[in-house]
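Exercise 7. Given the encoded structure of a 381-residue chain, write a plausible sequence.
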């Protein structure tokens, strides 16, 4: 139903105002999406006719908006979008597209704003496109950030892998550099940086160190071989360990100090220390529980003499089951001055490396008593 304002009017040289009649008339129903030619004419009393024409187009087709932006998620409150939306119309024009809020506006932080863009053609038809702008300034959260890793393997992995969650409900990918499974430099510490970026460009970072340590600890005070006659064996000092990471790894021996060792046997004791990287140092020694005493040979018989400076021959000697010849010590020693007219007990002993002792004893008697001279002379006649 089309009208027009003002209505056309006519004037004539005879001073009259002839009526103007338009066909189709204002207020008529015009065909949709077509152009109709309207002819208006006015005739004066002399039969003279004046004509004016114009077109009426009933356009009910809205413009078409192109490049309507997708939803925007950003961490910058000053938001723009590219490309800008544009519009075309069936009348061949390109209506302006107006967005509210406009590109370049400051949008509220950590909120979602609906942007409405519209374009109107000359007929008043309107096209609308909408999209959301979210200004997100909250970084993702990284979970399971690994602790520092110390290992002796240059191909390093970590478990579990770090993961990330974001306030938009997504799970951004976490990328670590160097990546798990990479070959790391040996005997060095490498800083690993893992980051996760959400759709708005917010970044979360977690870092940890990877040390590839291929140097074993150093064990100090590794015991020498132990030979004892006591089955409950200890050793002093205990072995200790130091590591290049500054720690003092525990040294564990098997069998442990204080254990009961088999008698008359030799047992190999292995002590090891492992550092945080898994490097192992080992020290070993033997423990022999020897409960067999040495054997003393040539133990002297009892000695009776009138000389206070007493010796004996041969000297007693000793042999042991460990193949050694322990020293035999006699008290009083041969060559000592013994008390006169007394009997002295001499004790000779020999001790082996295990502490087993053998003893032999004999008596020394220094007898200097005189019983007088027997006179054998004959009487003379």
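Solution.
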């Amino acid at each position: 139903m089309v009208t027009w304002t003002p209505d056309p009017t006519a004037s004539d040289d005879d001073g009259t105002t002839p009526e103007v009649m338009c066909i189709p008339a204002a207020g008529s129903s015009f065909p949709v999406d077509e152009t109709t030619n309207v002819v208006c004419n006015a005739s004066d009393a002399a039969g003279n006719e004046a004509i004016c024409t114009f077109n009426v187009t009933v356009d009910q087709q809205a413009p078409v908006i192109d490049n309507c932006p997708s939803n925007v998620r950003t961490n910058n409150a000053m938001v723009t979008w590219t490309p800008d939306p544009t519009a075309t119309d069936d009348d061949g024009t390109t209506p302006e597209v107006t967005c509210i809020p406009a590109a370049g506006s400051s949008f509220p932080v950590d909120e979602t704003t609906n942007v409405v863009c519209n374009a109107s053609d000359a007929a008043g038809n309107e096209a609308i496109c909408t999209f959301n702008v979210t200004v997100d300034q909250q970084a993702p959260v990284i979970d399971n950030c690994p602790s520092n890793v110390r290992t002796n393997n240059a191909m390093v992995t970590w478990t579990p892998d770090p993961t990330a969650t974001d306030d938009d409900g997504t799970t951004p990918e976490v990328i670590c550099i160097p990546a798990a499974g990479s070959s790391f430099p040996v005997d060095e510490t490498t800083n690993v940086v893992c980051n996760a970026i959400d759709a708005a460009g917010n970044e979360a970072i977690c870092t940890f160190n990877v040390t590839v340590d291929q140097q074993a600890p150093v064990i100090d005070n590794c015991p020498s071989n132990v030979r004892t006659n006591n089955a409950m064996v200890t050793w002093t000092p205990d072995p200790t360990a130091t590591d290049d990471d500054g720690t003092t790894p525990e040294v564990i021996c098997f069998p442990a100090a204080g254990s009961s060792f088999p008698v008359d046997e030799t047992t190999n004791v292995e002590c090891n220390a492992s550092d945080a990287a898994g490097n192992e140092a080992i020290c070993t020694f033997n423990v022999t529980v020897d409960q067999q005493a040495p054997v003393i040979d040539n133990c002297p018989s009892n000695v009776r003499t009138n000389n206070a400076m007493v010796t004996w021959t041969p000297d007693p000697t000793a042999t042991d089951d460990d193949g050694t010849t322990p020293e035999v010590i006699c008290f009083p020693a041969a060559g000592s001055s013994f008390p006169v007219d007394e009997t002295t007990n001499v004790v000779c002993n020999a001790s082996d490396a295990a502490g087993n002792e053998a003893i032999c004893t004999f008596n020394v008697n220094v007898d200097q008593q005189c019983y007088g001279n027997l006179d054998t002379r004959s009487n003379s006649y």
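Remark. DSSP finds no helices and 27 strands in the chain. Students should compare their own answers with the one above.
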